[in-house]
Amino acid sequence: MANSIQTGQYDMNDIFAIYELAIPRSVRFWWYLILNICSLICSLSVLYQLLFHRKLRQALNNHVIIVLLFVGLIYESLSVPFMLHFYRVGYSWNITTSFGHFWQFMDYTSYTISLVGFAWATIERHILIFHQQWIATRRQRFFVHYLPIMAIVVYSIMYWFLLIFFPACEDRIFLQPMNGVPAPCMAYQLFWGKWNTVCHLILPTFIITIFSSALLFRILWQKTRLNRSIQWRQNRKMTIQLVLISLLYLFFNLPRSILISVTVDGRSLYLIIQLLMHLAFFAVQLIFFLPFICYMTIPGSGKRLKKLLLLKSGRNMIWPIGVTAGRENNNQTGQKETHMT
């Protein structure tokens, strides 16, 4: 069995080498490395504020954001470093089957939770703004708010766990040209391939498009036609946050979803596959940029971060005894001169 996997790996790697990206691997390496480091720092900063600031932690609209940021943090810590290594060594990297399964599971599960989870967030934001009576009690909040988030996470984990670790096909590990992530063999089966494409990419992307646009339209319509400026001021931050994150998701996923929906029947040409490989490379970057959008849309995030840094620098600052005594004498002298004048 090991020999068949090994042979399949080299055969498929040779085939995928035909679809190598026009962007050199060295450029992709530094591109991902810089973005990943900056995104990790920003993710930790935003998560710290969302988890340790009571008002932000209790806000229902932030719960999905916390899940997405936490999943993105796992993705950037576990999957992206393997991509960077692939950009360094290329197809000469001979990975084992167990490692390939682990990489597949972490990558595909994280991205599915990120895309499907935010698609639900665009639906839930309508409930939080226009139908607050649906979440008035603790029981209602559990079924309407918490249960869908948990269901998306559990579904994504179980779906990819079964397809990757218990495949009903010949298990071959090969590196994809855009980032090296091994593709599960079940993803190339007719039913599961279409299920993954439609339910985990095309449908969430169009849900984000429809519901984020509808939310913006409803808010503006109530503001202009019904003259509900007070409600607009209360929900402005939630709306702006959703619209900006939606634009980020659509920028990286909408072109790919449209192109895949055209070629979902399997009759793909060489140029279309090449374009899809490039779009898949750029699609990963929505996880890099998500923390920055969240940072910009969290109320008072800059002030809290500045206060935290000043507090830590003040604690770590140790003054010599002579300098401290000199400052006290100068202060006392200045006070005496002031009284004399």
TrEMBL record:
Subcellular location as annotated: Cell membrane
GO molecular function: G protein-coupled receptor activity
Signal peptide: none
Bilayer disposition of the protein: Multi-pass membrane protein
This protein's UniProt keywords: Cell membrane, G-protein coupled receptor, Membrane, Receptor, Transducer, Transmembrane, Transmembrane helix
GO cellular component terms, semicolon-separated: plasma membrane
Domain G-protein coupled receptors family 1 profile: 42-295
TM regions (residue ranges): 29-52, 64-88, 108-130, 142-166, 201-221, 242-264, 270-298
PANTHER family cross-referenced by the UniProt entry: B2 BRADYKININ RECEPTOR/ANGIOTENSIN II RECEPTOR, G-PROTEIN COUPLED RECEPTORS FAMILY 1 PROFILE DOMAIN-CONTAINING PROTEIN
The protein's name in its UniProt record: G-protein coupled receptors family 1 profile domain-containing protein
